[in-house]
Amino acid sequence: MKIATIGLGYIGLPTAVMFAKHGQEVIGFDTNKDVIASLQSGRIHIEEPGLQEAFQDVLDNGLLRPVSRLEAANVFIIAVPTPHTEDHSCDTRYIRQAVKDVIPLLELGNTIILESTVAPKTTTGVIQPMLEESGFTVGVDVHLVHCPERVLPGQIMTELVNNNRIIGGVTPECTVAGSVVYRTFVKGEMLLTDASTAELSKLMENTFRDTNIALANELVKLSAELGINALDVIEMANKHPRVNIHTPGPGVGGHCLAVDPYFITTAAPEQTPLIQTTREINSTMPKYIADSVDVITNNTAKKVVILGAAYKGNVDDIRESPALKIAEHLQQRGVEVHVYDPHVTHYAMNPENAFADADMAIIATEHDEFKQLPSNLLTSMASMRVFDTKNIFEGQHDGLSYITLGTLHLYTSRSRLHA
């Protein structure tokens, strides 16, 4: 089986590698020439444990070829970005372009698989009409399937194999064709359904998490107001066998939690008030963190170092990062902000310069490197304050003020919060 993967980003590249690793002939296509050049030279352009080694193996044995021109194949997997528009609806332009690229190469019996996360009815409402306008009957001439990715950055190589896989065909025949493709390496259960159900299932997985994080973040604000440690409340409540309050934080990022719920709300705004409120709570958390900095420092902070630019620990993905939004809010208030992240090339600056004379360090990403901070960095600060929004810091130092989302009430009061 020859598989063409279109889009070699955080999902497309590991997927291409995994198919090749399990004996399939794979071509990887991307419109970014720099990405193709890097891959052809043997260097991956994203950070993911185990991916570089696996990629090198399949590149060396010829099972995976990065190409700048799409070729005919038995299976076409579309894994391109789906950003949101100004009104937060799903932008399908990259998907539509990918389908346009595929159509001239299609042969009878081919399977087209959409892995990109999309709004409900995109597979049947956008892709299927394009194929049928080109003369193909979906389910007869070609198979069209939506198979959303369900992996966690940092564990993609393991979860691609072991996680259950949703296979959503436009017709039952399409569903079967999709399951045959993924059975080449997936050990998890094949969850067979239709395309629209698959689309909404993926969106609701991330919306569930977004909503639960919003509940935890609202608890943080409530507890700070009432003088209670929110993290203690969560720990106690989660001792109940049927309660699992999620971990609060500075907001959510990445394509999934920060974007996917909007694809639901824009599709049916009148039916989704809870999801809209969830998005409002989580999207305003970076401002709440900046407001808290003002309160904690009594509006005296002149320089702040933000630890982490990535939206998630131990990865280099900065898409929709709340850390960068915190930086924007502080900069708008005239604060000098330095963002340091050893995983992100653009922010891998000299940490000594970032910490020197800072009034506060904000841990905004749970990188392992931030669990401990060297004494020389802390002592170089104008005020030794660490505001840990991820509750990961394990270090100690005389004179250090350590603040978490649980202990905000010790540094704030009703009068100051409402000043």
Automatic annotation (TrEMBL):
<dbReference type="GO" id="GO:0000271">
    <property type="term" value="P:polysaccharide biosynthetic process"/>
</dbReference>
<dbReference type="InterPro" id="IPR036291">
    <property type="entry name" value="NAD(P)-bd_dom_sf"/>
</dbReference>
<dbReference type="InterPro" id="IPR008927">
    <property type="entry name" value="6-PGluconate_DH-like_C_sf"/>
</dbReference>
<dbReference type="Pfam" id="PF03720">
    <property type="entry name" value="UDPG_MGDP_dh_C"/>
</dbReference>
<protein>
    <submittedName>
        <fullName>Nucleotide sugar dehydrogenase</fullName>
    </submittedName>
</protein>
<dbReference type="InterPro" id="IPR036220">
    <property type="entry name" value="UDP-Glc/GDP-Man_DH_C_sf"/>
</dbReference>
<dbReference type="InterPro" id="IPR017476">
    <property type="entry name" value="UDP-Glc/GDP-Man"/>
</dbReference>
<dbReference type="Pfam" id="PF00984">
    <property type="entry name" value="UDPG_MGDP_dh"/>
</dbReference>
<feature type="domain" description="UDP-glucose/GDP-mannose dehydrogenase C-terminal">
    <location>
        <begin position="305"/>
        <end position="395"/>
    </location>
</feature>
<keyword id="KW-0560">Oxidoreductase</keyword>
<dbReference type="Pfam" id="PF03721">
    <property type="entry name" value="UDPG_MGDP_dh_N"/>
</dbReference>
<dbReference type="InterPro" id="IPR028359">
    <property type="entry name" value="UDP_ManNAc/GlcNAc_DH"/>
</dbReference>
<dbReference type="GO" id="GO:0016616">
    <property type="term" value="F:oxidoreductase activity, acting on the CH-OH group of donors, NAD or NADP as acceptor"/>
</dbReference>
<dbReference type="GO" id="GO:0016628">
    <property type="term" value="F:oxidoreductase activity, acting on the CH-CH group of donors, NAD or NADP as acceptor"/>
</dbReference>
<dbReference type="InterPro" id="IPR014027">
    <property type="entry name" value="UDP-Glc/GDP-Man_DH_C"/>
</dbReference>
<comment type="similarity">
    <text>Belongs to the UDP-glucose/GDP-mannose dehydrogenase family.</text>
</comment>
<dbReference type="InterPro" id="IPR014026">
    <property type="entry name" value="UDP-Glc/GDP-Man_DH_dimer"/>
</dbReference>
<dbReference type="GO" id="GO:0051287">
    <property type="term" value="F:NAD binding"/>
</dbReference>
<dbReference type="InterPro" id="IPR001732">
    <property type="entry name" value="UDP-Glc/GDP-Man_DH_N"/>
</dbReference>
<keyword id="KW-0520">NAD</keyword>
